[in-house]
């Protein structure tokens, strides 16, 4: 059975994963939601106005009272810069499985932040929430995301042709990845390799 805790604050070496707040809208818009270099790898189109971002964050914030809503802002601890977001979603209570999605602003790519955030959320999902399996998918023309998944121990399970059609009306083949809780525990020798701390 999955244990739901909502979106608690999670801290890693360099990052604070925390709830989003409305005042994040300006940074979220500037840092990733309006940037086509980022949105080309996501399903949703780049935002054209900050109001779109405000509406999106209002929706996220309104969901925080739900215990099964897990959506974190990724903040850099050193300077409190908002650099991205990560969420667990599509929980299936029959299987205990869910999916993960993540985004880091272009300016902060290739500095290990995506991996650090995903590793923390995977660890939180398996150790604290008792999730059975975490899955994710990336466009075949976005290999950096597959690299991140690999680095946290997710394995590629297949490729689904034309799984998505993006905002530019392009169909994309996607690679599907997953990691089982038992694989995670075997790899990390339960509780001995924790990278995160959870704020009470
Ligand atoms: C995918 C994403 C989150 C990665 O974030 P990040 O902070 O740059 O990730 P990391 O720095 O932890 O790791 C990136 C890895 O990809 C590698 N990489 C970068 N570009 C690459 C490319 N074109 N081909 C292969 N590997 C690539 C980097 O070298 C690094 O691997 P390494 O540590 O072994 O050198 C970020 O690029 C992003 O937000 N993209 C847009 C949104 C997105 O794709 N989200 C995921 C949807 S599934």
Automatic annotation (TrEMBL):
Pfam families per record: Acetyltransf_3 (PF13302)
Boundaries of every N-acetyltransferase domain copy: 14-155
InterPro entries: Acyl_CoA_acyltransferase (IPR016181), GNAT_dom (IPR000182), N-acetyltransferase (IPR051531)
First and last residue of the signal peptide: none
Protein name, UniProt field: N-acetyltransferase domain-containing protein
């Amino acid at each position: 059975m999955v244990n739901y805790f909502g979106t608690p604050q999670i801290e890693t070496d360099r990052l604070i994963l925390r709830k989003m707040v409305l005042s994040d809208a300006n940074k979220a818009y500037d840092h990733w939601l309006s940037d086509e270099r980022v949105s080309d790898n996501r399903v949703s189109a780049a935002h054209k106005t900050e109001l779109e971002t405000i509406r999106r964050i209002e929706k996220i914030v309104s969901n925080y009272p739900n215990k099964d809503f897990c959506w974190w802002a990724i903040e850099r601890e050193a300077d409190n810069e908002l650099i991205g977001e990560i969420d667990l979603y599509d929980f299936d209570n029959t299987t205990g499985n869910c999916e993960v999605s993540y985004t880091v602003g272009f300016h902060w790519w290739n500095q290990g932040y995506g991996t650090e955030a995903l590793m923390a959320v995977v660890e939180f999902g398996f150790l604290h929430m008792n999730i059975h399996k975490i899955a994710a998918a990336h466009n075949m023309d976005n290999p950096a995301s597959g690299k991140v998944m690999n680095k946290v121990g997710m394995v590629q399970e297949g490729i689904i042709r034309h799984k998505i059609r993006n905002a530019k009306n392009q169909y994309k083949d996607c690679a599907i990845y997953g990691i089982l809780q038992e694989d995670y525990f075997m790899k990390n020798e339960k509780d001995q390799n924790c990278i995160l701390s959870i704020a009470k």
